[in-house]
Amino acid sequence: MNASRIVTEENMNSKNMVKGVFLAFCIIGMLVLPAAAAPISHTANGNGTKIDQGLADDLASNRVQYRLQEFDMHVTRANSVISILNKYSIDTTHMQSTLNTISSKRSSLETAMTNKDQESVKAINGELKTLREQLMTDMKESVKAHRAAAKSSATGKTGATTPVQP
């Protein structure tokens, strides 16, 4: 009788253990599933807590401010290079025209960034990239034409070549 009672108690303990494990899984599922089913928010940090809207707005404003400062810095640098090239009588007409087109994109960029219109920002950045490449090409062609003119002028006057400073 003792042996049958031990076997019965072991069976009951095993059944209770299975029930306990099942219950634990159910409780865990009830806790985890609502969080897993919740939509992912763009304002959530890695811990799942929402970022304060004021903080998000300040960070976005900061990004716009520094992107526009970067834009202005590039325009200032290009103007500086154009001034230097003008000093050496290099034709900068095409460069200035391209730079004017670049400068005219600033307000569109600012508006798109302020309105958080990512598609417009992407399109404007694509246009700016193309325009910067055009500006660099214009600069190279103008300097190259100036060198060629200086070289032909130097060889035509004396019959000997005079080195031209790059």
List the helices and strands and how they pair.
Elements: H1 2-37, H2 53-87, H3 93-104, H4 106-114, H5 118-158
Protein model, in words:
Residues about 160-165 have low confidence and may be disordered. This protein folds into two domains: about 1-35; about 55-155. It is built from five helices and no strands. It has helices at about 1-35, 55-85, 95-105, 105-115, 120-160. The protein is mainly alpha-helical. It is elongated and about 125 Å long. The longest helix has about 40 residues, at about 120-160. Helix 2 runs antiparallel to helix 4.
**How many domains is the backbone divided into?**
2
Biggest beta sheet attributes: none
Low-confidence stretches: 159-166
Output mean pLDDT.
81
- How would you spell out the order of helices and strands? HHHHH
Shape, per Cα inertia axes: elongated
The span between the termini is: 109 Å
Helix content estimate? over 70%
Radius of gyration, taken over Cα atoms and rounded to an integer in Å: 35 Å
Strand content: under 5%
Q: What structural category characterises the helix and strand content?
A: mainly alpha
Number of helices: 5
Number of beta strands: 0
Question: What features would you highlight for this structure?
Answer:
mainly alpha, 5 helices
